[in-house]
Amino acid sequence: MSGENFFDQILLSGVDISGNHLASECMEHFDRDGDGELSLKELCGLTGELFVDENGSSYEFPVWRSAEVFYIFDTDSDGRINLEELESMWDKFIVPILRPRTALIVIDVQNDFIDGSLAIRNCPAGQDGYDVVPVINDLIKKVNFDFVFYTYDWHPEDHVSFIDNVQLRNFHETSKVPQSEAKIFDTVVFEGPPPIEQKLWPAHCVQGSWGSELHSELTIVENATFIYKGTCSNIDSYSAFWDNQKLSQTNLSQELRDRRVTDVFVSGLATDYCVGYTALHALEHGYRTVLIEDACRGVAVRDIEIMKGKLLSGNGAVVAVDKVKSMVLGRDRRADLGYRTAMLAACSKMSCN
């Protein structure tokens, strides 16, 4: 494989890369001095070929990050990566990067957010929620995700977020907005317990209503999994994982774990709320997380940018839809996602010790 990208050639060959049977070939390729082990310099050569875009251009992966990867897998702390340690690296670090198990999560593409009571085109950013429908449909058609999930905002009629219900619960003394003056889009604090900060919205996505249905033009794949959130009257749930106070969670993380998903791609409505919080919580749960920017629409431009910044700072990725297929196929291997893979391996190592 001299002169060619080692990992690209592995993918092109179509061989089964699970397990560590290719680790010895990897050692032979990157062990430039032939001593049967990898130095930090030789590992930098490995990461240089591992983290490339679909055209073969290398992503920046600083030496200090390669050093962190090195010391995670140098379990005997001798300053070299031997074959046994490389076998562990292959299984826990390289395989998830080359052959990720992927899930597309389509967040809340429901009538009320497109044409109904909370159509986001009427929000400050002026973005039209309908625009995500053809983008997501095309994505599903062209990209072979291992699994597809759809989420529903699924509220009871007396839900705490509805402006129409503002008099049903007492305000906490810390609420900056008095109960008698509360209006739509205000943020208030309900008494609880515990005290709950809540943005007030028009009634939307009431269970079983037209507004709660997925848009009729959205492609629904066979064997999809559906996640319902915001089902409790007294607490909202932007994330498809947890409610806003993290008092309870949906079955999403368990469903992902059962399928051994490594990479989560998020899309839908709205970027700065349900999409963004789902992505942040996916990072917390240990998934390599990708926000598909042009498959989402949001409420407020400033909040959208803040949310994207949070994801990037957590070693998530924000990408355009035309980059997704090559990422799913392991041809576009992002350095930040790879670094996160190493950190997850380190966490797993610590929990085992």
UniProtKB/TrEMBL annotation:
<protein>
    <recommendedName>
        <fullName>nicotinamidase</fullName>
        <ecNumber>3.5.1.19</ecNumber>
    </recommendedName>
</protein>
<comment type="pathway">
    <text>Cofactor biosynthesis; nicotinate biosynthesis; nicotinate from nicotinamide: step 1/1.</text>
</comment>
<dbReference type="Pfam" id="PF13202">
    <property type="entry name" value="EF-hand_5"/>
</dbReference>
<keyword id="KW-0479">Metal-binding</keyword>
<dbReference type="GO" id="GO:0005509">
    <property type="term" value="F:calcium ion binding"/>
</dbReference>
<feature type="domain" description="EF-hand">
    <location>
        <begin position="68"/>
        <end position="96"/>
    </location>
</feature>
<dbReference type="Pfam" id="PF00857">
    <property type="entry name" value="Isochorismatase"/>
</dbReference>
<dbReference type="InterPro" id="IPR036380">
    <property type="entry name" value="Isochorismatase-like_sf"/>
</dbReference>
<comment type="similarity">
    <text>Belongs to the isochorismatase family.</text>
</comment>
<dbReference type="InterPro" id="IPR011992">
    <property type="entry name" value="EF-hand-dom_pair"/>
</dbReference>
<dbReference type="InterPro" id="IPR002048">
    <property type="entry name" value="EF_hand_dom"/>
</dbReference>
<keyword id="KW-0378">Hydrolase</keyword>
<keyword id="KW-0662">Pyridine nucleotide biosynthesis</keyword>
<dbReference type="GO" id="GO:0008936">
    <property type="term" value="F:nicotinamidase activity"/>
</dbReference>
<dbReference type="InterPro" id="IPR000868">
    <property type="entry name" value="Isochorismatase-like_dom"/>
</dbReference>
<dbReference type="Pfam" id="PF13833">
    <property type="entry name" value="EF-hand_8"/>
</dbReference>
<keyword id="KW-0106">Calcium</keyword>
<dbReference type="InterPro" id="IPR052347">
    <property type="entry name" value="Isochorismatase_Nicotinamidase"/>
</dbReference>
<feature type="domain" description="EF-hand">
    <location>
        <begin position="18"/>
        <end position="53"/>
    </location>
</feature>
<dbReference type="GO" id="GO:0019363">
    <property type="term" value="P:pyridine nucleotide biosynthetic process"/>
</dbReference>
<dbReference type="InterPro" id="IPR018247">
    <property type="entry name" value="EF_Hand_1_Ca_BS"/>
</dbReference>
